[in-house]
Amino acid sequence: MSYATLSQLKAALRVPSSDTVDDSTLQLALDAASEAIIVHCGRTFGTAATDTSRVFAAGKTDVVEVDDLSSITAVYFSDDGSTWNITTDYQAEPLNGISDGIAFPTTRLRTTNAFTWPVRGGLQTVKVTGKFAFGSIPTSVKQAEIMQAIRWFKRPDAPFGVTFGEMGGLRVSRVDPDIASMLEPYTRPRMAL
Predict the structure, then answer these.
(1) What is the DSSP annotation of 132-164?
(2) Could you give phi then psi for residue 167, rounded to 5 degrees?
(3) Any residues with CB less than 8 A from the CB of 182 and at least 6 apart, and which?
(4) Of 5, 27, 91, 182, whose CB neighbour count within 10 A is largest?
(5) Mean pLDDT of all residues belonging to the chain
(6) Which of 172, 141, 122 lies closest to 38, judged by CA?
(7) What is the three-class DSSP state of 56?
């Protein structure tokens, strides 16, 4: 699954839509770029069609980190199955769904009132049901995917890491700083457990 479309990639390469010779290779480059973005950012962009349940280990008594949630249906103690009240027992964060001016899904649940998450040395204690997904595909993620797909599609033209064009020789770096910059706000920090 790619975030950008084949027609968007072809437009960026200035390939006419009627030219279908490289369509399968271009689609492969898009799909590979999408997978690389998922790995780099530590999240999947887009929407989830149905609710699913996942379990999490609380690291603190007042906060549990969760996978991206675009909507929450229920939160339970995984031990006894008791349900928490969505409006009074915890709050979804980031507050208002905004972080640094960018719309984000829920990534943390913080307890309210006198409730606490059970912390049991990394054991799963919280079960969440909802739509696990970022909820949208940011424009900069689509653009980064197109740029990365172009790099990989053109890579056979630079087998030793150097390509030649109007400006002479150009070294093809391993990580494009523009792509890294576009994805940086959406990259989840990696933590050791």
Answers:
(1) -S-SS--HHHHHHHHHHHHHHHHGGG-TTSEEE
(2) -95, 5
(3) 140, 141, 143, 144, 147
(4) 182
(5) 84
(6) 141
(7) strand
Q: Which residue has the tokens 């696990």?
A: 132
Confidence of residue 7 (pLDDT cuts 50, 70, 90): very high
pTM to 2 decimals?
Answer: 0.78
Highest mean pLDDT among 65-74, 96-105, 149-158, 170-179: 65-74
Residue 161: CB atoms within 10 Å: 11
How many other C-beta atoms are found inside a 10 Å radius of the C-beta of residue 128? 24
**What are 86-90's contacts with CB under 8 Å, separation 24+?**
88/112, 88/113, 89/113, 89/115, 90/115
CA-wise closest residue to 186 among 121, 108, 76, 99: 99
Q: Which two tokens stand for residue 14?
A: 């200035």
Residue boundaries of the structural domains of the chain: 6-44+137-186, 52-131
- The string of pLDDT tens digits covering residues 29-84 is 999 999 999 999 989 898 888 999 999 888 888 888 999 999 999 888 766 666 77
